[in-house]
Amino acid sequence: MVSLKYPPKPRPGDRVAVVSPSAGLPALFPHVYELGLRRLREEFGLEPVEYPTTRVLGADPRDRARDLTAAFADPTITAVLATVGGDDLITVTPHLDDDVLRANPKPYFGYSDNTNVLNHLYRLGIVAYHGGSVLVHLGRPGSPHPLTFASLRAALFTTDWYELTPAHEWGDRPNPWTEPETLAHEPEMLPGAGWRWQGPQREVLGRTWGGNLEILHWLLATDRVPTAAELDGSVLLVETSQEMPGAQEVFRIVRNMGERGLLAAFPAIVVGRPKAWDRAKPLSVPERQAWGDAQREAITRALAPYNPDAVVVFDVDLGHTDPQLIIPYGGEIRVDAVARRISVRY
Questions:
Q1: Domain boundary, last residue among 125, 143, 160
Q2: Looking at the structure, do residues 70 and 151 belong to the same domain, yes or no?
Q3: What are the CA-CA distances from residue 320 to residues 39, 182, 309, 324 (Å)?
Q4: What is the DSSP letter of 34?
Q5: Exposed, middle or buried, 118 (CB in 10 Å: 0-12/13-18/19+)?
Q6: What is the DSSP letter of 17?
């Protein structure tokens, strides 16, 4: 197993980096971005520090890597938050200065395409944090979601165990960023039905690895993932994006992880609630429920030949749906199938 260490945590009043290593969407949606920055200051007492490419759309990957490296190198910066995801961070991580990152470990918060950075830091031995986008979560329309903000606050400032809570209501149909007036209104929410458990009744304690399933597939293709031996005993995290890969594609990605020998390494698997609505695929509520059922069946079917005895928990709020629970990446997690509880150590 990879030797991982938690980086020091920020304190209220500290300066934190706000970077766009994936997509410079603050340039297109400054009203959402500014709301996120204001909440970072007012709700968390942190002072955001921007970098040259934070508000630049289409910045060169080398420039984005230079900004991210600079954020780690700056001794006055105590945490690094990504503004949003994207689709080309896989071209940025090769340009990072790994010696600087190793010498200056800091909590990094991001999800989706930021799986590239989370995995990169994991391989350098640095615990990071899956979640906490400045645009998506800090800039949530209406008001901050209590579960998201409680989780983010604990992840930013504490080092203790934290029990995750199933959402009583959830959503995957966000307000359009192209219409600034919608920031005043709460997004559509649906009733929550709790987590779905399957597999043996046992408790699993391990370190997390994984992230967005589509990005993991890219990382597998570029051979940038840890070995099965390095991951042995870990807990796999997976979630799918707003691109909404179909059940068959999800099956094939998970199956291919099995063929690589990875699935057998995980005694437990925590699966994010699938996002099942997008403006390109505006599914009805019944269709969204069927979409989730099909994805759960696909993952179950893919696991069967490779790790039928894994503890599996579905519909955990850790991905592209609202709210979002922050999960330490490479940090400790306890998945208790007897008590049906999940806790993480921040």
A1: 160
A2: yes
A3: 20, 19, 27, 7
A4: H
A5: buried
A6: E
The answer to whether residue 175 scores a pLDDT higher than 80 is yes
Q: Which residues pair with 335 in a beta bridge?
A: 204, 342
- The closest alpha carbon to 266, from 346, 336, 321, 210, belongs to 210
51 and 150, same domain (yes or no): yes
Q: What percent of the chain is predicted at pLDDT more than 70?
A: 100
**Same domain, yes or no: 125 and 248:** no
Cβ distance 333 to 206 under 8 Å?
A: yes
* pLDDT attached to residue 2: 79
Single out the residue in 112, 133, 160 at which a domain terminates: 160
264-291 pLDDT, tens digit per residue, is 999 999 999 999 999 999 999 999 999 9
The tens digit of pLDDT for each residue in 193-231 reads 999 999 999 999 999 999 999 999 999 999 999 999 999
By the 8 A CB rule, do 269 and 312 touch? yes
